[in-house]
Design a protein that fits this description.
With 444 residues, this protein is α+β, with helices and mostly antiparallel strands. It has 3 domains: 135 residues, no CATH class; 136 residues, Immunoglobulin-like; 141 residues, no CATH class. It contains 7 helices and 20 strands. Strands 11, 12, 13, 14, 15, 16, 17, 18, 19 and 20 form a 10-stranded mixed beta sheet that branches.
């Protein structure tokens, strides 16, 4: 649809205010048509939309012009055919169009339209002068007729940025906006059937900028009352899956936080990026179940520790199927584990460390360690093995240096009991499984 001057748009909205669209009963096998009329001094037009499938259900919704109306949910594959009649108008000049909700552009699809996706669209009849005379809003639904796809819009400009299929319920969740703040906000909370698919819009270009959308999909536990494990839900944490512009991702059963991001490119070449939409979703069972690694037996002493560490985003495996529990833990790994367990705090003063660069995965963790006095000196030796003595010393300092020496504190907290009744063996190297077990015990 071409853009209208403001006065013309106001006239069109006034015309649409007179539009009457009868709401039809949900799941009625005989519902095969939708009729809308636009009686006006200049036009008297009736559009009858014949459907190849029954209407699954109806719902109050807002169309692309920002007006409340009726949304008709139709099974995907439904063909909609327009039959237009009226007086005082050249019917040959009418077109049947589909307009993505809040997208602001139209596509001529006269004289019929097939619901090929689950995205909501406006469908209507226009004159050659581009006045909307009659419209309906439809959305595809899954084959079971009980779930639908929700289209999501960017609040700042109303543009469609993403959609989520298989949605069976909608509510909200109120929680803090980010780590380290008491500010709260309310976000959408969806329930979706198994196989729910997140799809992203590609973006848009206007007179000021070119924009594209991406998404960070973070599997993270939360409760519906707003208790969220925010310490591992920031974009740089939680090991998110990334969905590219115009891409899609089928979500496995679990609980997720999804951050929709927009990258904007201005004419001067500058790039800005930020979160424009955040929502939570429970898919299928809605519970995160972390399958054990092939090399972590359920009978091993560190089984629960590994599950806890992965669940909390403290560490991943060395591959999709292996944790490598007997591999030596390095200084870079232990300080990263501790940093993540502490909530991945950010620092403002950065130390000059000769053997640590900004590209290293442990860079922020090492800077945190220097800022909190856990270590000092011009180098950190991140690749060196971490000993038992180093591990409990780091943990003791991360706990705020309680009133006991590091080893005594570790023994009192039940972090470790030593290598025998009389020895601690501080110079023995620690394995990955030993370190996550120490952390797990300290957190209990």
């Amino acid at each position: 649809m071409k853009r209208r001057p403001l006065l013309s748009l106001l006239l069109v909205l006034a015309l649409l205010a007179t539009l009457t669209v009868p709401a039809l009963a949900s799941n009625t096998a005989g519902d095969k048509t939708i009729v809308c009329k636009e009686p006006d001094g200049n036009y008297n037009v009736t559009a009858t939309y014949t459907l190849s499938n029954p209407i699954s259900k109806t719902e109050n919704c807002v169309n692309s012009s920002g007006e409340s109306g009726v949304c008709y949910y139709l099974p995907m594959g439904t063909t909609i055919t327009a039959e237009v009649s009226g007086s005082s108008v050249d019917l040959a000049s009418h077109t049947f169009y589909s307009d993505g909700v809040n997208a602001g552009t139209g596509l001529n699809i006269a004289p019929s339209y097939t619901v090929a996706s689950t995205q909501r669209v406006d469908i209507g009849v226009t004159t050659a002068g581009d006045d909307i005379l009659c419209y309906i809003t439809v959305a595809g639904v899954e084959a079971d007729g009980n779930s639908k796809t929700v289209s999501m819009t960017e609040a700042a400009n109303g543009r469609n940025c993403a959609s989520l299929s298989n949605v069976t319920g909608e509510s909200t969740i109120s929680t803090v906006t980010s780590l380290g703040t008491d500010d709260t906000d309310t976000y959408p909370l969806y329930r979706a059937a198994a196989g729910a698919r997140l799809s992203l819009a590609s973006g848009y270009t206007d007179s000021r900028e070119q924009c594209s959308y991406t998404a960070d999909v973070i599997k993270r536990d939360f409760s519906d009352n707003g208790d969220v494990d925010w310490s591992h839900i920031e974009a740089y944490e939680g090991h998110p899956q990334t969905v590219a512009a115009a891409g899609s991702l089928t979500l496995a059963d679990g609980a997720y936080c999804v951050n929709i991001r927009k990258d904007s490119y201005s004419g001067g070449g500058s790039i800005t990026s930020g979160i424009v939409l955040r929502f939570f979703v429970r898919v299928g069972s809605g519970v995160n179940v972390y399958a054990p690694f092939a090399d972590v037996s359920s009978s091993s002493y560190y089984f629960n520790s590994v599950q806890w560490a992965v669940d909390k985003g403290i560490t991943n495996g060395t591959s999709d199927t292996a944790f490598s529990p007997d591999a030596t833990c390095t200084r870079g790994q232990i300080i990263t584990f501790l940093w993540r367990a502490a909530g991945s705090p950010m620092v403002t003063d950065y130390a000059a460390v000769s053997d640590v660069s900004a590209d290293d995965y442990y860079y922020k963790a090492v800077q945190w360690a220097y800022a909190t006095g856990m270590t000092s000196g011009g180098s950190f030796n991140p690749g060196s093995p971490c000993t038992r003595g180093m591990t409990v010393d780091f943990m003791w300092k991360a706990a705020g240096c309680p009133n006991a020496a590091a080893v005594a504190w570790a023994l009192k907290q039940g972090v470790t009991s030593g290598t025998s009744d009389t020895t601690f063996t501080p110079d023995a190297t620690c394995t990955r499984s030993q370190v996550v077990t120490f952390l797990y015990r300290a957190a209990k």
